[in-house]
Amino acid sequence: MRTGWRESRGDAVRQLLVRWQPRRAAWAVTVAALALLATSCSSSSNLTPDRLQPSLGATFANLYVLQQSEMGNPLVTTAGLDAHASCQKGGTLDVAQEGSGVWLCQITYLIAGPGYPVIAKYNVDLQTDGCYAADGDGPASVNGSPTITGPGYRQLINPLSLIDGCFDTT
Amino acid sequence: MTKWFGETTALDGVDLTVGGGDVHGLLGPNGAGKTTLLSALFGLVLPDEGTIRLFGRTRAQAGAGWLDGVGGFVETPRFYPYLSGRRNLAVLAGLDGGDAASLIDSALERAGLDGPAARQKVRGYSLGMRQRLGLAAAVIRRPRLLILDEPANGMDPAGIRDLRTALRRVAADGVTVILSSHDMAQVEEICDSATILSAGRVAVTGRLRALRAVAPDSVWRMRTSDDGRALGLATELAGVKAAAADCSGLDGGGLVVHAAQGEMDGYVLALGAASVAVRGLELDRTPLEALFFQLTDGAAKTAHVEVHQ
Amino acid sequence: MSLAAEPWPAYDGRDAPATVGQRGRVAGTMAVWRVELVKLSGKILIRAIFMLSVIGPFLVVGFLNLQSATPGDTPFGQWVHTSGFAIPMTILGFGGQWILPALTGVVAGDIYSAEDHLGTWKTILTRSRGRGQLFAGKFLAAATFAVAVLLVLTVTDLAAGLAAGRSPVVGLSGQLVPAGHATWLVAVSYLSDLPPLLGFTALAVLLSVASRNSVVGIGGTVVIGVAFQIVTLANMPQWGQQALLSTPFMAWHGFWGAPAFYGPFLWSLLTCAAWFVACSAVAWLIFRSRTIEAAA
Fold it and tell me: Quick one: which of B34, B227, B238, B307 is 20 to 30 A from C133 by CA?
C-alpha cells in the first residue's frame, strides 16, 4: 500500500467551478420578461383593424345565413350579403387603433338589393389571442334579442346576438 | 482524490489502494471524510481532483457498468416507505437487470427478512431491519466488492455476529470488502488492512499487523492489592508507565498502565514476585485504538505515520 | 438470519447485459422507464386522476344539462345546449391552459424531487444504471403519464360530447360544422395541446431537479402556468406572445376557422420545442454532476 498527500489547493479552479446559481437565473428570467413587456410599446401585435374587420365581416355573413335558415326564411348567400365591417377602438379618435380591448364595429350588408344597406352594430371585446366576442348592439330585429323563433314557435339561440370568432395573429 | 464543498475540503489528497480479496477497514472520527470517500466510490460524489478506479476501470471508461459487481450502501440504507421490503428489492432488481430478480427470495431469507417482514411496508421497519434489507439489496447484485458504511448499526448482537462471520466468509471466497466502522473491535476482528482518516487526509494505512507495529502502547486498567507498591515497581521497569487512575473513572481507583503486551506480561510477573496480587486487568485501549486516538485526537495529534510493510 | 450460512451468489464475471454500448444504454433507459411506470401506477393519486378523467366529462355534461345558462367568456360556450361538440371544446378552451400544466406538474414536478425527499437517490444510483439512464427513464415516465392523461381526456370528453348530442356546431368563423368533421376537429384540437403539455413537463422536471422539492416542482409549475396567463393579457408584439408556453394551448383556434389557419399551430411547435429542449438540457446539466448527500 502506498501513502501520500498533496499540498496544493486550486483557488482559481474553485472559482471556475461555481455552480449554477438559482438566484441569478431567476433574476435573468425576470429581467428578460420585463424587457419583453417594455418592447410592447413598439412593434406590432397584429391586433389591427385590417385583421379584425375581414374576420368579423365573414363571420357575421355566415351567421346571418344560419339565422335566416333557422327562422325558416328564404335562403340568402354570403356572397349576396356582401358584408363589410368597420371597426374603431375606444371612444375617441386619438386612441391607438391596435391591441386588445373594446372595439366598436359597424357591419354594412345588403339584403334588399344594392341600394339598401343595413348597418348592424357590435361592441367587440378583442383578446390578445386574436379571439373576440361581439355583442350585438342593434338593430333589435337583427341582433337585439338573444333568441329567435323558429318553425313551430321553437325558441333558438340568436346566432347574431353574440358572435364568437378568432383570426390569425401570426 | 480531492473533494471540496464550498470552502470546506472534505477530502484532501486521499490516495488509497485496496487489493482484491481484502477486507479493508475505514476508520476515522465524524467529519473525517469516510462517508464522502465511500460516496465517491459509488459515484454519488464526483471528485474535484483525482480519479477513482474500480477493478481497474474509471467511471468514464466503464459507463453504466462501473458498479457491476459492486454492492453496499452509504449511511443508513433508504428505501421506498410505501412499498414492502420485497417490492423494494423488486424495484432495485428491475434497475439491475440480469438475474437479480431471481435472487430476491434467497437474499431476503439470508437477511432474516422472509415471511411477514418481506410483505411489510418499509415505513414500519426498524433500523436493524433496514440495515438487513440493505445487505439483501447488496446480495442480489452478486457482489465482488462490498462497500459497507457502519453495517452493524442498529443490529442486535446475534445479527452482528452473523454479519462478522458472513464478511469473513465472503472475503475467503474472494470478495473485496471495504468497511467503515466506529467499532474498533469489529475492525480488529474482521479486517486484514485498515486506513485511518483524519480531517480529510489519510493519517495511516496498511496491514493491521504493520499498524500495530507502529502503534503506541496499549492502555490497561489494573486493580491490585497494593497500588502504591505497584506504582513504585512500574518506575523500575522500562516500557511500563503507570499512574493512578482518577476517581472520576467508572471503576474508581486502580491504575492506568501504558505498556505493550510483552512489557505488561513482565510487569504482572514482577508484581506477583513482589507479592502484589492483581485483582483485575482489562485492556482499555488496543494498539489500534491507541494509534487511532494518537492520530485523530485534537491537540496532541500526529498528522501522519509512515508504515513499512 | 443466516448471512453466513451459505456462500453468497458469486459474481459471474460479466457485466449485466443491459449496460454495454449504445443499445445497452437504450435498454437500460427502458428498464428505468418500466420501473418508474410500475411505481407510478401504484400511487393512489395517479389512479384517482385517471378515474376522474374518465368520469369527469360525463359529470360536466350532467351539470350543464341541469342549468339553462351557458358558460360565457369562452368560445363555443354559448352553444353547449345546442350541440354536444361544444362541450369538449368549452372544456378545452376553459381548462386547457391551467388544468393540463397542473396535471403534468403533479407527476413531472415530483418524480425527481421525491427521491430527494425519501433519500433514495443513493439507493437507485448505486445500481447498474448510470445517471443518464435514470434521468431519461424518469423523464420518459413523466412524459408517458402526460400523453396518457391527454389521450384519456380526448376520448372521454369527445364521448361525453357525442352522448350529449351530435348536432352540427358553429365554428369560429360562424360556419356550421357537420358532425363528422366536428368529431375530427375536436380530436385534433385536443391532440394539438400535446406539444405545450410536453413543454410544461420539461419545465416541471427542471423545477423538480433544481429545487429538490416537490412543492416547488408541482406548485411552481402551476404558478408559472398562471403567470403566463396573466402576462399574455398584456399587449405585446406577436413574437412575445408566441414565446409564452401558454399560447400554444390555444393554437387549435385556427382549425375551426373558415378557411382554417395554421400559423399559430406552427408557431406552437417551434415554441414548445424550444422550451422543451432548454428546460431538459438545463435540468440534465444540473443533475449530471450533482453531489448526492448520503444523510441518514
Answer: B34
| CB neighbour list of residue B4: distance below 8 Å, 6 or more residues apart | A14, B10, B48
Nearest by CB to residue A169, choosing from C78, C175, C238, is C238
Are residues B123 and B171 both part of a single domain?
yes
Look at residue A12 and tell me whether its pLDDT is greater than 70.
no
Closest residue of chain A to C75, computed from CA coordinates: A164
The CATH code of the domain that includes B272 is 3.30.70
* Among candidates B15, B193, B207 on the partner chain, residue whose Cβ is nearest the Cβ of A2: B15
Q: Does C13 map to a domain? A: no
pLDDT per residue as tens digits for the range C235-246 = 888 889 999 999
Cβ of C258 within 8 Å of Cβ of A165? The answer is no
pLDDT digits (tens, 9 = 90+) for C40-97: 988 899 999 999 999 999 999 999 988 888 888 889 999 999 999 999 999 999 888 8
Q: What is the pLDDT of residue B248?
A: 52
Structural domain including B282 reads 216-290
Number of domains in chain C: 1
Please indicate, yes or no, if residue B296 is contained in any of the structural domains: no
Cβ separation A169–C264 shorter than 8 A: yes
Is B244 domain-assigned? yes
Q: Which parts of chain B sit beneath pLDDT 70? A: 246-253, 298-309
Question: Has residue B225 been placed in a domain?
Answer: yes
The count of structural domains within chain B is 2
Residue C222 lies in a domain: yes
